[in-house]
Specification:
91 residues, 82% helix, Clostridium phage phictp1 gp74, DUF1599
C-alpha cells in the first residue's frame, strides 16, 4: 500500500471516530469553542500532546488508549478546530 493510500485510510478512520464520538458527545467541541474560543481547543490539544509524551516515555497503566489512539485524537482535534475557524469565517 502506498503512503498516499495509507493517508486516505487513516483519514477515513479519523472520520469514523469523529462520527462515533459526535454521536456520543454531541457537538460539545463546537459549543465549547463558541463559549471559550481558541483556549478550549488549545487545552484539549495540549492534554493529548502531554499524553503522547507520557506514552513514549513509559508504558501506559490505562490500556485502552494507545499512542495511535492519542495521535488520532490530536488529528481530530486539529481538524475540528479548522472546522470551527472555517465556519466562523463564513458567518
Amino acid at each position: 500500500m502506498s503512503k498516499v493510500d495509507q493517508h486516505k485510510e487513516i483519514c477515513e478512520r479519523l472520520n469514523r471516530i469523529y462520527a462515533a464520538k459526535n454521536r456520543d458527545y454531541g457537538d460539545s467541541f463546537g459549543e465549547g469553542f463558541k463559549e471559550y474560543g481558541f483556549i478550549m481547543p488549545a487545552i484539549r490539544l495540549d492534554d493529548k500532546l502531554h499524553r503522547f509524551k507520557q506514552l513514549i516515555k513509559q508504558e501506559a497503566a490505562v490500556k485502552d488508549e494507545s499512542i495511535t489512539d492519542t495521535l488520532m485524537d490530536l488529528a481530530n482535534y486539529a481538524i475540528m478546530t479548522i472546522i470551527e475557524i472555517e465556519n466562523k469565517e463564513k458567518q
